[in-house]
Design a protein that fits this description.
22-stranded antiparallel β-barrel; 3% helix; mainly beta
Length: 750
């Protein structure tokens, strides 16, 4: 058997391994969503040699430079083009990416704001203003550290990269689990161009998205893009509080200027802003049946009963300057970023009911949280070699500073007046020096190593405490320095098939949680991760198909976890002595015919907390499955991480029918599945999210090439509704996923 045949045999065995693990493949295709979907080759004249069926070469910047995805020794998925347009068509926010790629989950207890990311089951459920997450979100090369910044809407994007595993060498902040990287479409000097898209759907879910690129001279170009979204209120409240809910208004814009005077210097300036208002997350009292993870009889997604007020607003603004010099021997980069949360406030009735129900409501709790002041500044200098020989390198310096004042308050549900107010401030300063080397041993084998030194300091203090009595100190400072590293090898079995192996470490600095009347300021020590990964990446059948398969194992020491709820409704940070994770990931993409294109993928993610001494509070009115060691306290040793589905699978299929004169009728469907999840650190029957399968369908017509498109679409077409999170003190309150919606869309490119 030749080398190429052996490589294909290995790939078939890898695919069978994942299928044996139990990932289902709807439509008979393969599993997860990769890469972009430009219009299929069927819409253009077929080449006699079959080249019209070849997939577009996919490039990523996972290692801070443009490389073919096949040559990068990291498990990475790229989304772009039609895929993103389809996912955005229903007016959903960034959470729509959950389960659309292997090992990725996104959720929020704050609705459209404050999303929390999980990669390979590794994330953080903390909803504090000062929370840090082990998944870093990078937007146009600038880290979005505060969770309120992470929900910036998706529009006019060149692509979204999901990098799995520690990325602590080349990226700046908190990346032990991975990175989700957004890149905007950039200005160019070519010509005036752009697009606009309008849509409307169920509950008057109206979207307007547009972008225009304008060359201003032979050296300057501008690109302006904007998004306007609206949804009517569709949930009725008969409890006396805010009467109509779940509507929103979203406004976002981005203005970019490109200056390119010659082939040496390049400057890209970016200004962006977001303003959103609407409903906070709706907490629904006692919708979970006692002894079950199902809903109680009579539950309706369009009905709630609570007596509190519900509102949410967020306004953010930011800018960046990305400068580069392409010199004879090196490339120089300077990336300056500034972000600010001008205002943020979210208020909700977290008991989810009234004194008379529904169900048992032991006490009334209405809370608000927000940001009173925020600014973030980051600066990176990086130099990259351009050697023609086998050895190349990158090195750089990084600085990060954040100053944020967060507040929390309680309200009387009878008078709606504020009864207490607490404001805290945290200042976070971090410095880093980093570098990496790549060495081409020969035409097939490439070695890479990276190193990063980080020093991170946080200063936390209480500023205002009205009607809040707490114990312990009123301020605290924590600092930690750490060296992170990674080593990898990439070996080309053939021109089309490569394998890789990687070992990497990651680091997250200590975290600090605000006090409450029952819990003082708590600190979680720094956490570290060591990850091992190996994979194979292949272009198959004359590049008509591609497949990426990886396996991994990681160990986290002192993982920072957030213990929330229980009888006291307290929030505190804890460290788990050890957490382990194991799994496998598969991405597939293929042009099966000139008309039919499929993508598919899946992941198996096993996580386990290992700490026999770690106890957390459990709920009072649910069925806790862990051992109660002391009254109200349960051992979580052996539990999976919260919000960590063991299985994720997804598939898309696009079928196009040429209609003559460059017109096309097309059908597009996408499906995503995740298995059950725990809402909290402890295991319970009720606070377990059921498996969730959501599908989308799009039928459209393109004419005049790709210039015009009209389409009808549906999201969550089976109308599958499950609980996706909960609040566990003294009742069984939960919140749900988005219901089914239908809509129509028109798009024009120019």
């Amino acid at each position: 058997m030749g080398k190429k045949a052996r490589a294909r045999a290995r790939l078939r065995c890898a695919g069978k391994m994942v299928l044996t693990l139990g990932v289902a493949l709807p439509l008979g295709a393969a599993l997860a969503q990769t890469a972009g979907t430009a219009a299929p080759a069927a819409s253009s004249p077929a080449a006699q040699d079959g080249s019209s069926l070849q997939l577009e070469t996919m490039t990523v910047t996972a290692q801070r430079k443009v490389e073919k995805i096949k040559d990068v020794p990291i498990s990475v998925t790229l989304l772009k083009g039609e895929t993103l347009d389809v996912l955005n068509s229903g007016g959903q926010d960034i959470r729509v990416l959950a389960a659309k790629v292997p090992s990725l989950n996104i959720e929020s207890s704050n609705g459209r704001t404050f999303p929390r990311f999980y990669i390979r089951g590794y994330g953080n459920t903390d909803f504090s203003t000062f929370a840090s997450q082990p998944v870093s979100l990078i937007f146009d090369d600038v880290v979005q550290e505060n969770a309120a910044l992470k929900g910036f809407p998706m529009f006019d994007l060149a692509g979204v990269e999901v990098l799995r595993g520690p990325q602590g060498t080349l990226f700046g902040r908190n990346t032990p689990a991975g990175v989700v990287k957004f890149d905007s479409a950039k200005p160019n000097l070519d010509k005036v161009s752009g697009y606009y898209s309008v849509s409307d759907g169920t509950h008057n879910t109206a979207n307007v998205e547009a972008a225009v690129n304008v060359p201003l001279s032979d050296q300057w170009a501008m690109r302006f893009s904007t998004l306007v979204e609206h949804r009517d209120n569709w949930v009725k409240n008969d409890g006396g509080g805010t009467p109509n809910l779940e509507g929103y208004d979203e406004r976002a814009g981005r203005l970019q200027f490109l200056y390119k005077p010659d082939g040496t210097f390049n400057a890209l300036f970016n200004i962006h802003s977001r303003a959103t208002t609407g409903s906070a997350r709706l907490f629904r009292a006692n919708i979970l049946e006692k002894g079950s993870d199902g809903f109680v009889a009579g539950f309706s997604p369009s009905q709630v009963t609570f007596n509190g007020l519900n509102t949410q607003s967020l306004h953010t603004t930011g800018g960046s300057a990305r400068l580069s010099w392409n010199l004879d021997q090196v490339k120089l980069y300077s990336i300056t970023g500034y972000e600010t949360i001008s205002s943020y406030f979210s208020r909700g009735d977290i008991d989810g009911g009234t004194p008379t129900g529904p169900g048992f409501i032991p006490f009334q709790v209405q809370t608000g949280g927000g940001v009173a002041d925020h600014k973030q500044f980051s600066q990176e200098f990086r130099v990259e070699s351009k050697n023609e020989g086998p050895l190349n390198w990158q090195s750089g310096l990084y600085y990060f500073y954040e100053d944020v004042a967060g507040n929390s308050s309680n309200f009387d549900s009878t008078t709606q007046l504020q009864t207490s107010y607490l404001q805290n401030r945290q200042k976070n300063t971090a410095y880093a020096a980093f570098g990496s080397l790549t060495y081409d041993v020969n035409d097939r084998l490439k070695l890479r190593g990276g190193l990063r030194y980080t020093e991170d300091k946080k200063d936390f203090s209480n500023e205002v405490a009205n009607n809040v009595t707490f114990t312990g100190p009123s301020s605290i400072s924590e600092s930690k320095s750490k060296v992170s590293w990674d080593l990898s090898a990439n070996y080309a079995l053939t021109q089309d098939v490569s394998t890789y192996a990687r070992v990497a470490t990651g680091f997250r600095a200590p975290s600090i949680a605000a006090p409450s009347s029952s819990v003082p300021i708590t600190v979680a020590n720094a956490e570290t991760i060591t990850s091992y990964e190996a994979g194979i990446k292949a272009d198959l059948f004359n590049r008509r198909a591609r497949a990426n398969f990886s396996i991994y194992s990681f160990d986290v020491k002192n993982q920072q976890l957030t213990a929330v709820g229980g009888n006291s409704n307290s929030i505190m940070l804890v460290n788990a002595a050890k957490t382990v994770g194991r799994g496998a990931e598969l991405d597939l993409e293929a042009n099966l015919t000139e008309r039919l294109r499929v993508t598919a993928g899946g992941s198996y993610n096993y996580t386990q907390i290992r700490d026999p001494n770690l106890l957390v509070a459990g709920c009072a009115s649910c069925t806790v499955l862990n051992t109660q060691v002391r009254p109200g306290l349960y051992s979580i040793d052996g539990n999976p991480l919260p919000q960590a589905p063991k299985w994720i699978a997804n598939v898309t299929a696009r079928y196009g029918i040429p209609m003559g004169n460059n017109d096309e009728l097309f059908f597009y469907t996408d499906w995503a599945y995740r298995s059950k999840i725990n809402f909290f650190l402890y295991n319970s029957t009720e606070f377990t999210g059921k498996p969730l399968l959501e599908g989308g369908l799009r039928v459209g017509y393109k004419w005049d090439g790709d210039k015009y498109e009209v389409a009808a679409f549906a999201r969550n077409i089976t109308n599958k509704i499950v609980a996706v999170g909960g609040i566990d003190f003294d009742n069984r309150t939960a919140f749900i996923n988005e219901p089914r919606m239908f809509g129509v869309q028109f798009r024009s490119n120019f």
